[in-house]
């Protein structure tokens, strides 16, 4: 499942990057590759923590999931804020792209969490 998740995350990041670069080159910025990489790393951390809690203490999986959601929100907000304060170009493009990826990955990670919960209740 982890390999499938990584391939999917990378495919989405590359696909959106090519779309921005070739279809909307005005909106492509040099920091774009950071965004899918950032969300891929956070996705791997979330998946790993869910696997850990699934094996060690399944009752705490919801706590771990919600904690990761909160941390991801704070890190993403801080990242956008730091970019906005330190960079002078493509501020709106970076912010909107990051928020778009945030919500897309939120949907995917929620689906993954529900799969974990479904497996937990079946057993």
How would you characterize this protein structure?
The protein is an all-alpha fold. The protein has one domain. It contains four helices and no strands. Helix 2 runs antiparallel to helix 3, helix 2 packs parallel to helix 4 and helix 3 packs antiparallel against helix 4.
Name its key features.
84% helix, 0% strand
Quick one: how many beta strands?
A: 0
Report the total helices. Answer: 4
How many domain modules? Answer: 1
Shape: elongated
What oligomeric assembly is this protein in?
A: single chain
Helicity level = over 70%
Question: Could you list the spans in which at least 5 consecutive residues all have pLDDT below 50?
Answer: none
Give the rounded overall mean pLDDT.
Answer: 87
CA radius of gyration is 16 Å
- Measured between the Cα atoms of the first and last residue, the distance is 18 Å
- Taken in chain order, the helices and strands follow as HHHH
State which percent range the strand residues make up: under 5%
Structural class: mainly alpha
Instruction: Outline the biggest β-sheet.
Output: none
List the helices and strands and how they pair.
Blueprint: H1 2-23, H2 34-56, H3 61-86, H4 91-122
Helix pairs in contact: 1-2, 2-3, 2-4, 3-4
Summed up:
This protein has helices spanning 2-23, 34-56, 61-86, 91-122. The protein is mostly helical and 123 residues long.
